[in-house]
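Section 4.2 – Deliverable D4.2 (structural model, holo form)

The reporting period included a commitment to supply a predicted holo structure for the target in complex with adenosine monophosphate. Inputs used:
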Amino acid sequence: MKVLVLNSGSSSIKFQLFRNDDWTVLASGSVTRIGEPEALMRCRWADAEGTQQSLEDCAAIPDHQQGLQRIAEALAQTGALADTAELLAVGHRVVHGGEAFHAPTLVDDDIIEVIRQVIPLAPLHNPANLDGILVARKLFPTIPQVAVFDTAFHQTMPRTAYRYAIPDFLYREHGVRRYGFHGTSHHYVGRRAAQLLGKPFEHCNLITLHLGNGASATAIREGSSVDTSMGMTPLEGLVMGTRSGDIDPAVPFYLSKHLGLDNDTLEGLLNRQSGLLGLCGDNDLREIQRRAEAGDEAAELALGVTAHRLKKYIGAYLAELGRTDALVFTGGIGENSAELRARACAGLETLGIRIDAAANTAASQQERAVSHAESPIQVLVIPTNEELQIAREAVEAVS
Ligand code: AMP
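Output (structure tokens):
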């Protein structure tokens, strides 16, 4: 049987089709620019001889329903999914599950209503995610649809980690608390780390760092998330591509009072003009590293602030976890930037983290250890695979 994974955004749908016995990717791609005059459809698949093939076409795709229809046609055309009856399940990425969802969930009318109720917590993401579910139900009415939430993995955090020290009614009546995101990625690399360590996940204490354009750190105790750096929204925590991460909550009041900035401007400032971009004018870490190496002070500062924040979170989570088996790097930056890994871990030797310079800088796209053989805490680089995790969780939910 096969599993289709959909990640539906406001103007795009990304997809991957897996065979569920060995998790081979049969096809993948996206429809982007939905609603624009020329939407782009991309599909890659392996033909009967195993040779990679691809197709691309441009045509107007007015809405998500036609976007998904186009994906289904492409999958039929390539032979990857000749008959939709071959589908065991469709797995949907849903960004926010609030407190309602602790696990992947089989979608029915009631579940759709609950996802709708959570929209105020993720107004930019959940409506598009829900749209994807609604059109998939229409197009594949007999196939189970499973919602997999970015927040679900973090629902095991204790109250002491998820509550903010603000008036109680804000939590009780308005859901203001920390939820955490990137849960699918932290869960995936956590499980892979356990396999590499040769221990059951439930016996592992790990710090996982998902470092991409968005970035978050998670403390995992005995297989469960006990703390994470993102909060009620994905703005809290580490320095990101264009997001500030942690700042004094009084900064927006100050800017509002003294510069007359309104809420929307402040939100845009902290979400889209801050982070690496705000510090040095670039948010592509490769370019920032190149500039820093050439002596550019702003780029050097951006790397320094990012590594300093990372180190603070690693230290905090070491203190929370006590015994720690491994520190895991993932995401575009975590997987590829030896420089940032080295900066984040520098000086942590007395806390049990010792990087091996040669292993850290060796070019590789594989799962690997980059710590010194005698490092008490292993440092691992594990490429994330959120689609595979969603596919697996979808199958678990239907069986
Ligand atoms: P993601 O959001 O996971 O796709 O990650 C995007 C980030 O990864 C961007 O800041 C990229 O500059 C960064 N990145 C990708 N490849 C490399 C690389 N080889 N070295 C350093 N950073 C990289």
